Amino acid sequence: MTFATQTFEQQLIDWRRELHQNPELSGQEVATTARIRHWLESAGLRLLPYTLATGVVAEVGHGDKVIALRADIDALPIHETSGVSFSSQHEGVMHACGHDVHSSVILGAALLLKEREDQLAGRVRLLFQPAEENFTGAKALIKAGALENVSAIFGMHNEPGLPVGTFATRGGAFYANVDRFVLRVKGKGAHAARPHEGHDPIVLASQLVIALQTIASRDIDTLDSVVVSVTRIQGGNTWNVLPENVELEGTVRTHRGDIQKQVEKRIREIASGLASAFGAQIEVEWFNGPVTLINDEKWAAFSMQVAENVGYKTQTSELHMGGEDFAVYLQTIPGAFVSIGSASPYGLHHSAFNPDEALIENAARYFATLAEQALLKN
């Protein structure tokens, strides 16, 4: 194996740093795929011949029962400012979500499982998934057949707000529905000195932003989780002219399908009402993103028990308002998604995100143990 001349931990860290220096965006992970394929093949892992543009699926063990472990491999369009010695060599692209860490963890689990392959009570399938950030990778792997005969699947995300050595998960709803909206306001342009001759779309857009915030505070039960955020406003191109159009964009996060539908309905109603009041038009475009990630209760409890047994400090996670493509797998088969503390001083998707690499080896050993023991269940 390629790590024979150095410690297991250092090999995983070296792989993580090589991935970190060479990040690739969703669907473009060609070199990343080649690296992971090479490392797996060098360790004697079987690569499965699925038709994938990017991404790798490997397997270890023998028998009818199959458990899957998943890592994500894509990066983000972010200019890195972390200052680490192994910073991204690709300008404007960064592993700012820790997918390089996730990949090294599951690579480590693969090596450990290979060492005890003859003792496994079945097969462990290792999914190195592309395009998590644009929520297309899980569907691509499922379409290729990567979940065939799999009885349960497990995955992780590093959690910068938790100390290293801390583990968290929960049964049932965990990560949120992620929806995107675009509101196109069409008014009537005019000279800024004669606003009465137009229908000012900037004032309307401002009223719209305020009105949307009442959805969470006044339309939805306060015990239900919902976030409505306007993240972009664009309109006008000079200082003394009222523009014709303003465009707003944002996101909605919920954990229940009925709440998701209710929020969309209220956004459309508010847009229609304000357009009428201002004598303007508002077009609403809605994009459904990944669904709520719903952990299987049994497998979530099992994953936490294994974590406790191997020495993690465990806790029940709070609801997470972020989205996660892993949710698509859990619509097809049961499993559990977990959080492992990475203690970064900056959060996910931040240009200075810097997870503590001390988490990697222990997480690799955890996932190898989890897969091995999951094969013995039922």
TrEMBL record:
Co-factor requirement: Mn(2+)
Keywords, alphabetical: Hydrolase, Manganese, Metal-binding
GO terms for MF: metal ion binding; N-acetyldiaminopimelate deacetylase activity; succinyl-diaminopimelate desuccinylase activity
Enzyme class: hydrolase
Binding site for Mn(2+): 97, 99, 133, 157, 349
Domain Peptidase M20 dimerisation: 180-272
Cofactor note: The Mn(2+) ion enhances activity.
Coiled-coil features, chain-numbered ranges: none
EC number: 3.-.-.-, 3.5.1.18
InterPro entries tied to this protein: Amidohydrolase, Bact_exopeptidase_dim_dom, Peptidase_M20, Peptidase_M20_dimer
GO biological process, one term: diaminopimelate biosynthetic process
Extent of the signal sequence: none
Name by which UniProt lists this protein: N-acetyl-L,L-diaminopimelate deacetylase
The organism of origin for this protein: Buttiauxella gaviniae ATCC 51604
